[in-house]
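Retro notes - structure team

What went well: the batch runner handled both jobs without manual restarts.
What didn't: labels got mixed up in the shared folder, which is why I'm recording both outputs here explicitly, each with its sequence directly above its tokens.

Job 1
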Amino acid sequence: MAAYRAVMGVLRVSASVVLLVALATTAVLEARALVAAEPAAQVVVAGAAGVSMDQAVKMAEQRFKARVVRAEAQHDGVRTIYVLKMLNEAGHVWTVRVDAANGVIL
């Protein structure tokens, strides 16, 4: 019975990891599709800011060796901040904020 419980525990953890990776991949694809679907909006943001959201995503993914699973722009008065939710291979999720004017990670 103990062996059965151990195997079931491993299967539950494995299923959870697979589900998390699948959800993260879906979120990345949806975020990139949204950016690609609105090229006019992206050009306006890029023209108003020094760094586009796509550039911020690529920079963060390279720096932290993780995938961006969600990206959004937040406006604080005249300042635009990209809020990027990151996921690494170990399943750790965290948020990175990038100043759209200069690309500095806050």
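Job 2
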Amino acid sequence: MPPLMSKPSGAAPATLVYITLGAIMTVWSGIWYMYLSNNPPQHQVISYICYGFLITGIVLLVIGVILGPISRWARHAELPPSEATPTAMQTEQTAANRAV
């Protein structure tokens, strides 16, 4: 029988990745937007690309912020019920004693 918490949720590292990428993308897109405000491009496409990166960065940041509480809830959901824990521990002990 596998241990009780053999593989925890992977949502916490994903939260950090989303928040980091979103923040970096938002900051650099904001800098690019300020540059484009002072030096207007000849084609509108460049402005649309800048807006797209800015909005994408904000969306990634929001996803990361929302994923944080979800990862905490998932951690609680993965734990076995408190009344089942002693039974599972007893089962693991019995299996370990049989193996020896």
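One thing worth noting from job 2: Residues 11-99 form one domain.
We'll revisit the folder naming next retro.
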